Amino acid sequence: MSKRELGRSGIQVPLLTFGGNVFGWTVDQAASFNLLDALLDHKLNFIDTADVYSSWVEGNHGGESETIIGNWLKKTGKRDQIILATKVGKPMGEGKVGLSPRYIKEAVEASLKRLQTDYIDLYQSHDDDADTPLAESLAAFDALIKEGKVRAIGASNYSAPRLAEALKVSQENGLARYETLQPQYNLYDRKVYEEALEKVVTDNGLGVINFYGLAAGFLTGKYRTKADASKSKRGESVVARCLNERGLKVLQGLDQVAEKHGAQPGQVALAWQITRPSITSPIVSATSLQQLDELAQAATLKLDDADIRTLNDASAW
């Protein structure tokens, strides 16, 4: 498995990142353990989660994904075999939100405890916090790196101007900088990233671990008619958002390239992202070993220039 560096962090990761939001949500602990074992078998050892996963499930409070990963680490003793990313900033209860230095210090200890580890490889701001000066948040992150609790930091859901400002603040104050960005990006959702964020990323040598790499399943070809909305809990929203003239054109392009390579549309969609120079490692999720096996093949699928043109034209914004 080829590897790429996360920004200038020195941390090498595979071409695909596994999204741990499914742990404690659509897969229970036993199934999660099986997936984690299989990830290592595929040499996909970069796992992204967040403290807030999966608070949206009835009866959950957040921390479920981190807890399951921590239980797996305790059972297997394989902490040194994975690259672990988590996030801070989304609401976790009264007074537990944002990027104030006080809360960052509190939240990292809670994540470390749930993960049953003494360090996090990549600690990310889950949302921008306009109420806390960037210098204060970055100083708190910098302290965590110096204490050895965090190896590198990243940003998620930042606008291009705020990301550029954060990088400037780090440079001017001699603080650790965001080494990665986690934006929404895929063949259907290209405009926001390509219009402004991509330039900030490339100008500053940041790594990109984009989420919704398969547009919530749309790019697998699962949803082709309105009737397909019944195929999953999120099907209705996916169909409402993506099943339109442009979406169908994207699927047509994916089908064309997939047929040429004897591959699945979802594999082609991920391979297209992997070939983009600014993308480091797209985030993907699976709820079964079969899904994981299929997704893993995207990392070895080689697209040629004609394939890229076909997909770029089909998804032009």
TrEMBL record:
<protein>
    <submittedName>
        <fullName>Aldo/keto reductase</fullName>
    </submittedName>
</protein>
<dbReference type="InterPro" id="IPR036812">
    <property type="entry name" value="NAD(P)_OxRdtase_dom_sf"/>
</dbReference>
<feature type="domain" description="NADP-dependent oxidoreductase">
    <location>
        <begin position="16"/>
        <end position="314"/>
    </location>
</feature>
<dbReference type="InterPro" id="IPR020471">
    <property type="entry name" value="AKR"/>
</dbReference>
<dbReference type="Pfam" id="PF00248">
    <property type="entry name" value="Aldo_ket_red"/>
</dbReference>
<dbReference type="InterPro" id="IPR050523">
    <property type="entry name" value="AKR_Detox_Biosynth"/>
</dbReference>
<dbReference type="InterPro" id="IPR023210">
    <property type="entry name" value="NADP_OxRdtase_dom"/>
</dbReference>
